Amino acid sequence: MTYSRRDNKFAGRYNFLGSAPGEDAPACAELLRVSQGDRLIEFGCGNGDFLAAALGTVDSAVGVDISANRLAQAALRFKGDARVELIKSALLDFDPGQRTFTKGLSRKTLRLLTDKEKNRFFGKIGASFSPGALFLIEDLVLDFERAELDINRPGLMKDCAAYYGASWERRKKEVTAWFKQEYPEGIKAWTAALQAGGFGIIRRIRKTPFYGSLLAERQ
Description:
By secondary structure, this protein is of the alpha/beta class. The protein has helices at residues 8-18, 25-31, 49-54, 68-77, 115-125, 149-164, 168-181, 187-195, and strands at residues 39-43, 60-65, 84-88, 101-107, 129-142, 185-186, 199-206, 211-218. The chain has 8 helices and 8 strands, in the order H-H-E-H-E-H-E-E-H-E-H-H-E-H-E-E.
């Protein structure tokens, strides 16, 4: 079955299969250099694991997600906390309005956008980030460009099997779908998308040959 990236059913399925584990949230907060006075936004916030990890430090936090169910869980979690704003929106539909941010984050979400859509997304949100603001991406970051995916697929599958080990056969269908149905990128494409919003990559952490972190700074 094919799911639209705007579809709430897709969002629920994706949160079940591919969402970032909550235990990663403190490490992401440290990498993003979350500090007092920050105005934070997370795209694909799910049930708010990262927002919760950051709230001990930041002044305010905005969570954006397309899944009504996950946002409902986050709303219960942050009930009565005026520092948190939760917004139901697709990535490309989000309008920052008068909001400004010093820190931004997206984990395992932006790969749902095509190349052009990634450029549009960052082009749309870039002006809402102050100069020197940081944006952290945790996602599929390939060692080659996506146009070279077919020729590199055998080696990629070998890397996936080595990484997942005993769980590879159970996860093979799910992981293979990431590369067939979604839009993982090489570093050149990620760089171009970020530059569309005025960001420059200042650090790359290569966690596996197909997944990692990109920390970008607003110029």
